[in-house]
Amino acid sequence: MANTYKNKVIDLTTTNKTTVYTCPANTTALIKTIQLTNETGSVNVEVFLEDVSASSEVEISHITMSARSTENFAKGTIILEAEDKLKITAASANTVTGILGILQIDF
User: What is the pTM of this model?
Assistant: First the structure.
């Protein structure tokens, strides 16, 4: 089993729900942080987890971010199993950027 720390840069260029990370096959991923920054006026941001094995999607976090603010949307460790997806949507395009902190555990 190999443990690999990863970061994933996020730039939400659309208001569509965007897949920002997909857990690789034969891997479990621990999302430690979802740190997002809003560059302009107030914007609603939502984070979703798609559980592929259960064929379901749930909203795991939402915050109305004020201008020039930074928030961590992961209030605790988020566990993704193989092929699960982390998705984010923002009410305004080209205003929200950030980074994911991930520990990937390969089998």
Answer: 0.94
